[in-house]
């Protein structure tokens, strides 16, 4: 089968690191004093598999994914992020870290992190794939303590994993969009979000796996639509942006002063590219959002095996208030077109 299924070579890792040079130059050209900016890196939809394969038939929709060496892709991603001249403060692992949430997949994640490719701190987000075959509660807590990275919070509730951390004077709020198509957040999470947004003197970034704005052709029930949650986010002036994965597609909207973005997938693409991303901030807020293709061989769900140049894109935000994709049941639109941002 002609599909990406092979280990990452030293030469490919070096080529990946070298492919970051153009991005480093662009960042230096845009921000001449790198000491004034900070970068939050993003890597999501790793879809890690156990190295020895699955002990059961993996067929039907998604069956082909078992032949993609997602471990290879994640290791290449870490090599590339580590090649940034401006060291990121944090890597957000934006959900679907594993293919099914299985113990052997989490152990593969731990194995990769222990290779020492990149020592930038991480924070985890749970995706819908994490909720497919999680171990029983007590075993999952034990497993979490085995595989967790430094600084990760306790896993108090594996069915709904949400928390906040403060890193470098930014509050990072992590939400759990749990199982699609259940697209309304629980009362527990909404109460948590309301509390976190009410009592914060810090600028805030929110991360959730499933998106709440259209991303490419994801414009229907795949959206995470929750009117109360949207209202909470909009009414908090400290929220700078909300960032997601899930779609395997890059997108960036600006809506009433806040950024809403999605990033490509690390494991395999769906009509775009595999890759990772970054959020660039200074004391004034978000100053840039980019994504970068993984360099070399990759796999796309629409066209099959492909070769990527490792290019990067600084995304220009589109106005969501001016977009025909805005659903007025969930999102406010100023009745005066001239007043829309």
Quick tags:
seven-stranded mixed β-sheet; 341 residues; Purple Acid Phosphatase, chain A, domain 2; 15 strands; alpha/beta
What does this protein look like?
With 341 residues, the protein is an alpha/beta fold. It has a single domain, classed as Purple Acid Phosphatase, chain A, domain 2 (4-Layer Sandwich), CATH 3.60.21. The chain contains 7 helices and 15 strands. The strands form 3 sheets. It has a 7-stranded mixed beta sheet, covered by helices on one side. Helix 3 links the parallel strand 1 and strand 2 (90-93). Helix 6 packs parallel to helix 7 (227-235). The longest helix has 13 residues, at 70-82. The mean pLDDT is 91.
How is this structure best summarized?
The chain has 341 residues and is α/β, with parallel strands linked by helices. The protein contains 7 helices and 15 strands.
